[in-house]
Amino acid sequence: MAGRHYSAYAAVKSKRSPLLLFTLSLLFLLFLFYIFTSSPSTSSPALDPSSIHAASNPNVDYSFVSSLEKFLINSKSKSSSKVRDDTVRGDASDRDVKIFDDLISQGEEKRLYGDEYPLYSQIRVYVYDMPSKFTYDLLWLFHNTYKETVNLTSNGSPVHRLIEQHSIDYWLWADLIAPESERLLKNVVRVHKQEEADLFYIPFFTTISFFLLEKQQCKALYREALKWVTDQPAWKRSEGRDHVLPVHHPWSFKSVRKFMKKAIWLLPDMDSTGNWYKPGQVYLEKDLILPYVPNVDLCDSKCLSESKRITLLFFRGRLKRNAGGKIRSKLVTELNDLEDVIIEEGTAGEGGKAAAQIGMRKSIFCLSPAGDTPSSARLFDAILSGCIPVIVSDELELPFEGILDYRKIAVFVSSSDALQPGWLLSFLRSISSSQIREKQINLAKYSRHFRYSHPALPMGPEDLVWRMIAGKLMNLKLHIRRSQRVVKESRSLCTCECRRSNSTSPVPLS
Question: What are the GO MF terms of this UniProt record (predicted)?
Fold first, then answer.
């Protein structure tokens, strides 16, 4: 009996064995497929998130010229349906300021105690409706002249390329004034009543006016813009502390800056040389560093996987700079004609751009020394090219550093170390292949944070601007309220900084 049962079991088992083996084999193959497709490839960095956004948003435009063309055409068709706001046309009286302040206080009460508004779940920005001579006329001036112009700055840089490089004022404004149904950013919303605003955006194109207007004409326009803004009740109430002013080129708006030094400035860097900003005008507690607009195309996941990085260290740019950029000529002397190193003098135009782009895509490391100021657009070109930046700029402040950790994508070297004979190349060669690989993967992830676009994308630079400013908002409100209630006998300064008579610490917000 037992034998019959065993024989039957063996017969069934013999029939099931091939099926069981096939099933197990299939499961094993599926497991292997999952492992190799879900883990990062050893030959190429992870998929660039910005390419995912671009694929899901085919209408995203990353080109300043192309985006501006569409923007100006649309502005013509929408001019008749433009939303009117309550921007004051003329000098606000003390009574106007008092009425405005009361309205602000009422709104704050509702947000603090009522359920009508969440408490600062979004930043609410009021965009001033400035006369067209400060906004659209300047954009049209750029649009109508950029193809024909051969104007160069004193150091040989193409004027219109510099404007594109510093066009952060366009990208932020174009996003803020777009119809809400077309905007992708949800942490910042435009409001049309001043008393509802947390912040006030000044849409004056300071860089375009500086480069494309005659000197005296430009200075006159700056004075007009200054008067127009400082006449607003919101400015008078806060002395500009809650106003956002784009001054991304260090030469722009220079003649009237001292009258607007309490506003939030959007800058390329803090400039420790003292050549561009006067003491007390800029500091991290108040202002914000924004990336330059890159001059190269994104090296996407396909490009990254195909790039053969055969050069250890690459640099292409102007080899002699002023002020803080003198480190360049010293580095060139140290690195010239060394094996695995390419150092080239930069040239303007499409040819120069193509040469820089090709060189960066063929290199593991890209040298990023200081320019005339501590920052350089080359840093962001390297990031988009998948080339690990080697930052030799002792006083550099970086964009969005409260959010991004640049140690994951860059190498930081002091000037004194970099200039020691043989030190820099020995240091770079000591970095392991696994560390290089990790930084390259992070470069692919981080590139989305430095690509301006329209519409602005979540976690793009426009988005990170408002996320960084959100962190300053409570402190701004503190200093506005404090400035309104202090009496004569109060201390004129409010700071937690330890100050000495010879201190160079930042001037406090109040």
Answer: xylogalacturonan beta-1,3-xylosyltransferase activity
Q: Which of 97, 101, 92, 26 is nearest to 477 (CA)?
A: 101
Query: What are the φ/ψ torsions at residue 438 (nearest 5 degrees)?
Result: -65, -45
In 3-state terms, what secondary structure has residue 460? coil
Domain boundaries, the chain: 1-39, 93-293+457-510, 303-450
**455 prior amide bond cis, ω within 30:** yes
230 closest CA partner among 202, 269, 268:
202
Residue 46 has pLDDT above 60, yes or no: no
Q: What is the pLDDT of residues 104-146, one digit of tens each?
A: 777 776 766 666 555 556 899 999 999 999 999 999 999 998 8
Which residue from 70, 292, 80 is spatially nearest to 182, judged by alpha carbons? 70
Pairing of strands 288-289, 264-267: parallel
pTM: 0.79
Q: What is the CATH number of domain 303-450?
A: 3.40.50.2000
Indicate the pLDDT class of residue 52, thresholds 50, 70 and 90.
very low
Alpha helices in 231-339 (DSSP H): 233-238, 301-306, 327-335
